[in-house]
Specification:
370 residues, seven-stranded mixed sheet, Rossmann fold, eight-stranded mixed sheet, globular
């Protein structure tokens, strides 16, 4: 198989879909890998490392997409990449289709086999390719939030850890999943007072045990959420419904009652966000203010630390890349129910129910199409 690795073109996206180590393994397995020049440069993986591993360095994205049987990326294609789509192309990347109906339409129109990292499941039913970036984003969310709490960046001027004689800042984490637990770890490490809000009482019990009672846990309902965000200096949004648009847990009315200069970091923004006042931003223009509250809603937060993020992501994605290359997409999808869950579009048909529900489109299970 010919595997193409284009350079990411989303604003300040600096990760890369395959590392030199991955290239070496693919080439040794008899596959050909085309890497766009400088695709890995911002992840501290220069062209000469890819060449040494056996990749062919290609000068243009057009040729990478045109010649590859399967394109491996990190982020969902942006509008200027839509022209590369063609029938039968296998696209393996984060897709986050629920809030992007125009991308869905293009993938369907061109009959692309779109396999989304974020909906692949393992035998335990977890989301193994979403986990590493959720870990990075969860930990980063507190770093970013702490920075934006500084007065110079529009925040309240609060030091999260406080100092002797001055209480620490309050951090409210909405969602007790991978993002939430990693955000809580960093916030606690900085000395903040941390509250985690979740709908699942069993998860709250687990978190209480994990943190040995040192975090506050709160059952999610509108009354509790209103109170928690009103008291918070920093709110982290980390709610996920796999494949679907994130539910709006924090409403405009709740935001209007928050402290002036408080900060919101909505990590769920690539699925539409779980804060009603959140809208997607970029690393070039990351933050804005609503009702005196600073909002940081960058859709590709882990791109700020691309070396760590690329290594963490490809550790998880590469076994699937190798399986798809070795078996071909159809056979690989047929053989692995978890990989089937990752197929969002196939031969012009939408195959992911949460995306279909979010966009009001018809869908079919991919198993019925194979």
């Amino acid at each position: 198989m010919i595997i193409g690795v284009p350079k990411e073109v989303k604003d300040h996206e600096s990760r890369v879909g395959v590392t030199p180590a991955g290239v070496k393994a693919l080439v040794e397995a008899g596959h050909k890998v085309l890497v766009e020049t400088k695709a890995g440069e911002l992840s501290a993986m220069p062209d000469d490392e890819y060449q040494s591993a056996g990749a062919e360095i290609v000068g243009s994205a057009y040729d990478v997409w045109r010649l590859a049987d399967m394109v491996v990326k990190v982020k969902e294609p942006v509008e200027k990449e839509y022209g590369h789509f063609r029938e039968g192309l296998v696209l393996f990347t984060y897709l986050h289709l629920a809030p992007v109906p125009e991308l869905t339409a293009k993938l369907l129109d061109k009959k692309v086999v779109g396999i989304a990292y974020e909906t692949i499941r393992d035998k335990a039913g977890t989301l193994p390719l979403l986990t590493p970036m959720s870990e990075v984003a969860g930990r980063m969310s507190v770093q970013v939030g702490a920075a934006y709490l500084e007065k110079e960046k529009g925040g309240r001027g609060v030091l999260l850890g406080g100092v002797p004689g001055v209480p620490p800042g309050n951090v409210c984490v909405i969602g007790g999943g991978i993002v939430g637990i990693n955000a809580a770890k960093v916030a606690m490490g900085m000395g903040a007072k941390v509250t985690i809000v979740d709908l699942n009482l069993n998860r709250l019990r687990e978190l209480d045990d994990i943190f040995n009672g040192r975090v506050y846990t709160l059952a999610s309902n509108s009354y509790n959420v209103t109170h928690a965000v009103r008291e918070a200096d920093l709110v982290i949004g980390g709610v996920l419904i796999p494949g679907a648009a994130a539910p709006k847990i924090v409403t405009k009315a709740m935001v209007s009652k928050m402290k002036k200069g408080a900060v919101i970091v909505d990590v769920a923004i690539d699925q539409g966000g779980c804060i009603e006042t959140a809208r997607p931003t970029t690393h070039s223009d990351p933050a804005y203010v609503v009702d005196g509250v600073v909002h940081y809603c960058v859709t590709n937060m882990p791109a700020a630390v691309p070396n760590t993020s690329t290594l963490a992501l490809t550790n998880a994605t590469f076994p699937y890349v190798m399986r798809l290359a070795k078996m071909g997409a159809k056979a690989a999808i047929e053989s692995d129910s978890g990989l089937r869950d990752g197929v969002n579009t196939y031969d012009g048909v939408l195959t992911c129910k949460p995306v279909a529900d979010s966009q009001g489109r018809p869908w079919k299970a991919v198993g019925d199409l194979l």
